[in-house]
């Protein structure tokens, strides 16, 4: 597998576009995107487990779980189409019908996604006009993918995309992805919005199995603010245009594809965590030596979610007591007297806790390490052989500023 330039248009047969439709008046940003596959693709998806779900989540679940096929995705930023009742659901159908009509695709094979302010209705004249503008602008190539990746952003500071290639049965297979997310990030399925395209030929049920498994160690292991969104959606489309033999079982080709998909998803997950609203640095926590994988996941996630620890990372303060405290209330049973903690970054590595007690470490060196991006905390509880990694970010003054006037 190798990383290449590009995003959702890197794989064979995929076009994309992104532009400003005017979803929210008074803005100038691109706010609508479209992805289109020349050929019908099998699709898989994971969605928010928040009881309050946005209308597009209901629509896309039906497409993924009932149809298992898709050929286009329409995305808007600015308005989430969440908590919008029957009108919101009807608007999803209108989006799919409009796109389907212009692309000659069945509406039930059009996925839709929204992100932005909760509670506001989409202005469908604007949305449908946006779809009409997007279709003729659909194009292959890196620039088209970048336009789409830019159009789905809200408080993000940068576009988030990646592409990789691997070889399956002698054929070159490509996977490309884009995502958005900076706030309301504490996924319980997948990220805010993530779209992955591939030209691989693979069975839909196996694709869904792989996505559901990988999401647990990638998107579900990030947190910015502890809030699980109403709109969390991760979608994968595979159109088979690489012409590899269809992957129908867990063999060598399946493992190679799964590894490539995992790489893409982990990269995108880290991009989201590292671009948390107002943040200065990505904070990565690995828990080693756990009795079970679940224990390791719970502990590492507890530390990246700790408000006090996040504030300490912002302040470049090696306040290891906050880390140990978060580990202690995580719900996992361990011996505090066996805990080791190491801080790492491009500035070096420093053991700050050994057997639950502070080492004679240099506060100056610790501050130097914590000044870099990313910052890593490596924990070892010496209770077994399992490990897990979670990703978060520091907590800054800017986070409060952004969320104090998000709707304006």
TrEMBL record:
According to the UniProt record, what class of enzyme is this?
transferase
Which Enzyme Commission number(s) are listed?
Answer: 2.3.1.35, 2.3.1.1
Any Gene Ontology CC annotation:
cytoplasm
Q: Where is this site: Cleavage?
A: 190-191
Q: What is this protein called?
A: Arginine biosynthesis bifunctional protein ArgJ
Query: What role is this protein assigned?
Result: Catalyzes two activities which are involved in the cyclic version of arginine biosynthesis: the synthesis of N-acetylglutamate from glutamate and acetyl-CoA as the acetyl donor, and of ornithine by transacetylation between N(2)-acetylornithine and glutamate.
Q: Any idea where this protein resides?
A: Cytoplasm
In which pathway does this enzyme or protein participate? Answer: Amino-acid biosynthesis; L-arginine biosynthesis; L-ornithine and N-acetyl-L-glutamate from L-glutamate and N(2)-acetyl-L-ornithine (cyclic): step 1/1; Amino-acid biosynthesis; L-arginine biosynthesis; N(2)-acetyl-L-ornithine from L-glutamate: step 1/4
The source's domain of life comes to: Bacteria
Indicate which residues the UniProt annotation says bind substrate. Answer: 154, 180, 191, 277, 403, 408
Enumerate the catalysed reactions: L-glutamate + acetyl-CoA = N-acetyl-L-glutamate + CoA + H(+); N(2)-acetyl-L-ornithine + L-glutamate = N-acetyl-L-glutamate + L-ornithine
Alphabetical list of NCBIfam families matching this protein:
ArgJ, PRK05388.1
Name a biological process GO annotation.
Answer: ornithine biosynthetic process
Q: Gene encoding it?
A: argJ
UniProt subunit comment: Heterotetramer of two alpha and two beta chains.
The family line of this record is: Belongs to the ArgJ family.
Q: Name one GO molecular function term.
A: L-glutamate N-acetyltransferase activity, acting on acetyl-L-ornithine as donor
Q: Which PANTHER family match?
A: ARGININE BIOSYNTHESIS BIFUNCTIONAL PROTEIN ARGJ, ARGININE BIOSYNTHESIS BIFUNCTIONAL PROTEIN ARGJ, MITOCHONDRIAL
Q: Which Gene3D superfamilies match?
A: arginine biosynthesis bifunctional protein suprefamily (3.30.2330.10), ArgJ beta chain, C-terminal domain (3.10.20.340), L-amino peptidase D-ALA esterase/amidase (3.60.70.12)
* Residue numbers annotated as active site: 191
Sorted UniProt keywords: Acyltransferase, Amino-acid biosynthesis, Arginine biosynthesis, Autocatalytic cleavage, Cytoplasm, Multifunctional enzyme, Transferase
Q: Where is this site: Involved in the stabilization of negative charge on the oxyanion by the formation of the oxyanion hole?
A: 115-116
